[in-house]
Amino acid sequence: MVMAAALALAVGAVVAWPAASPEPAPEPAAPLIRRLLRPYGQDLLVRADPLTLRRVSRPLGVPRDAFGHAFSPDGAMLALGSSHGPAVSLTDLRLWRPLGSVELRGRGAARPLAWPESSGLIVALSLPFPRQAIAVVDPTTGRTLVRRSWRGEGIAEAAGAFGVVTLVSPPRRIAPARLVHVDPAGALRSVPLSRIRAGYARPQRRTGVPRSQVPGLAVDPARRRAYVLAVRAPLVAEVGLASGQVAYHRLRGRAPGDRLAAAVAAKGGRFEAAHRVARWLGDGLIAISGDDRSARPGRRTRVAPFGVRLIDTTRWTTSLLDARPTSIALAGNRVLATGRRGVDWDHQGKRDAGLQVFRQRRLYVRFPGEDVSVYGVHGRRAYVWVRRTRALHTLDVGSGRSLYVRRTPPRRLPSLLVPEGPDAG
Questions:
Q1: CA angle 280, 336, 124 (to 5 degrees)
Q2: Can you give the pLDDT at residue 270?
Q3: Cα torsion for 331, 122, 274, 226, to the nearest 10°?
Q4: Cβ(332)–Cβ(281) under 8 Å?
Q5: Beta strands in 50-143 (DSSP E)
Q6: Measured between alpha carbons, how far is residue 140 from residues 88, 124, 145 in Å?
Q7: Secondary structure in 3-state letters for 331-392
Q8: I need a labelling partner for 424 at 20 to 30 A (CA). Which of 14, 64, 299, 332 fits?
Q9: Which residues contact 283 (CB under 8 A, 6 or more apart)?
């Protein structure tokens, strides 16, 4: 039995499991698209089998410098950005053919952010630092409908039917942030957040570690409200996107990060860099994770997990779900949490977070103690790679069962055009 299982893992096999629990997410409108990276010439786009990730279509060539993507609301079209010029290429996913490209004014890169149903395609444009710009483009005519720009460094972003929300810090320093909202029609609103500090600063000579504070950002798309979660204090800024009004809320319960900061200070270190990532779960709930990095002279940088925590915006309370994760992804209403201890590529895991799946509590754990990465989420399936075994699992998120397993070396890991994963647009 053990030998048969090992053989199945080596060649890739469909694994039979009992029926899954109810789906955590509906099937997406768009097919699963995989980008095949090549060392020369064009990269390729293919439709992929959601179970095995094998290609099920003829390849379409795309520029090697393509980055960022957005799907049309009905999932019938794909927009790909360009890192070498202000152009967006369009692909008809139903007829599986290229539709040409939309050329935008300027010299910098173009990155599709969102494709709201009520408007055109929203594209981020690179301008000379520290300026940023967003354009709303009619994908049928190629005409730029609206173009907006502002000064500052974008450090967190959320996009959807509400448009694009960007958390902006002053350039090259940590200071009070502001929230920039561009709605689907292209109207821009900038909201100062006097009590939320954010940004990147030069490293101190003593440690050499770049200093940064990146708060978490989540958006409730139904109520059109943005939430910015401070790094250094149990504080949340709630911003009405329609009105621009700001309310600050002090969190009750276990204060995020307080015990961790005290432990580092007691050992003679200090946090140089803190990063948070947040996801809106619905029902008034926000999940947040991240890490804090500290250093002492002559010592290796210490990475401390922030854990995964749940914030209830109806009562303004916070609770710790698990202390080990440093990263989260969303699969419908479920949170996929992962995390690793240490910084070396070849470390053997054993103390890492594995894959933990939460709703309002932990639902299950897969690969306990292992260093794992989520390489994409598509509907009810997540693509999870275990570093020690070099195995890529297609997981049913509802049940946690591996539906398909295949050995995959790091250089062959998939580049999937999905909302959650390393290559998310």
A1: 55
A2: 55
A3: -70
A4: no
A5: 60-62, 66-71, 77-82, 87-92, 97-103, 110-114, 121-126, 131-137
A6: 12, 18, 12
A7: ECCEEEEECCCCCCCCCCCCCECCEEEECCCEEEEECCECCEEEEEEECCEEEEEECCCCEE
A8: 14
A9: none
Q: Which residues partner with 77 through β-bridges? A: 92
pLDDT in tens, 22-70: 456 677 878 999 999 887 778 899 999 999 999 999 999 988 778 899 9
* CA pair distance 298, 150, nearest whole angstrom: 40
Q: What span, in angstroms and rounded, lies between the C-alpha atoms of 63 and 81? A: 9
For residue 25, give both structure tokens. 């997410």
pLDDT at 167 over 60: yes
Rounded Cα distance, 211 and 370, in Å? 29
**Residues 350, 366: Cα–Cα separation, whole Å:** 13
Query: Would you call 423 helix, strand, or coil by DSSP?
Result: coil
d(CA 272, CA 301): 9
Which residues face 151 on adjacent strands?
A: 131
Tokens describing residue 52: 């095995």
- How many angstroms separate the CA atoms of 196 and 276, rounded? 13
pLDDT digits (tens, 9 = 90+) for 212-266: 999 999 999 999 999 999 998 899 999 999 999 999 999 998 544 445 444 444 4
What are the C-alpha distances in Å from 423 to residues 156, 162, 282, 319, 328? Answer: 16, 22, 24, 30, 15
Residues sharing a CB contact under 8 Å with residue 204, sequence separation 6 or more, in sequence order: 211, 272
* CA–CA distance, 83 with 89 (Å, rounded to integer): 12
As a whole number of angstroms, the distance between CA 185 and CA 213 comes to: 31
> For residues 294 and 209, what is the distance between their CA atoms, to the nearest angstrom?
8
Longest Cα–Cα distance in the chain: 63
What mean pLDDT comes out for the span 336-347? 68
Q: Is 203 exposed, middle or buried (0-12, 13-18, 19+ CB in 10 A)?
A: middle
